[in-house]
Amino acid sequence: MKVLNHIPDWRLFLREARRVLRAGPLVLLHATRETLEANWVIEYLPSLLVPEETRYQTQQDVLDALREAGFPRTEVKAMFYSDFADGSAQALKHDPEAFLANIRNTSLFYRIPPADADAILAKIRRDHDSGRLQEVIARYDLLVRKHGDGSVFAAWPWTVLSF
User: Fold this and answer.
1) Residue 79: which H helix or E strand, with range?
2) Which of 6, 75, 81, 118 is deepest in the core (most CB within 10 A)?
3) CATH number of residue 25's parent domain
């Protein structure tokens, strides 16, 4: 599920998931702070990275919260989109035309006032038309390769015993 950044008390959500999960694992796809920092849209929406923005936790914060919720075994891996069908900003960042055509349908833009969204999209469109957007995207490429487009977390309510 891809839901953590939409739940105000996401730690409570993880505790409840652990309470009802019997066999496991719990699998989460999440746009972490690291994967958000690897998205070129931050160039145009730096407010997403201010400390007060709590929707994007670090990988370590999520791992710690999973363990605190009662999952003794956790893993995280970077996820890379091979197509952009899910329509998220993390997927759309790989196709600027699709991004510009569909970004208003993503949760990323829901909290932005419409006038601000219009101005941001106009700037991205100007940069796209001038070729500057490709330069911006290229600057984020190393971070994308390092952190991925999202983080996949797996958490088990039990540990593997070895003898």
Assistant:
1) strand 73-79
2) 81
3) 3.40.50.150
